[in-house]
């Protein structure tokens, strides 16, 4: 009699065979040298990326926001509202 465990084991074995990677053809990350030790990569949603096309633009806007909010340590409730905001960015008219 066939059991569910047998099916799972067979499926796992099939996947393992499928995902055998040949690391001998791997190449170093060509962008690694561009990132400083303190660099953090952040993925932007498409609507935000359409507005801020460079890291300089995004950083400038974030610094303005930080300045406008003041010391976030003194207003943790405001910080939580900003972090939990999911409203899409309104695009300016072209």
Detail the poorly predicted runs.
Answer: none
Alpha-carbon distance between the two ends: 68 Å
Summed up, the helix count is: 4
The rounded Rg comes to 23 Å
Q: What's the overall geometry?
A: elongated
Architecture overview:
The protein has 94 residues and is mainly α. It has one domain. 48% of the residues lie in helices and 0% in strands. It contains 4 helices and no strands. It is elongated and about 60 Å long. It starts with a helix and ends in a 10-residue tail after the last helix. The mean pLDDT is 76.
Features:
94 residues; 4 helices; mainly alpha; elongated; 0% strand; single chain
Q: What's this entry about, in short?
A:
The protein is mostly helical and 94 residues long.
SSE topology sketch:
Elements: H1 4-18, H2 46-51, H3 55-69, H4 76-84
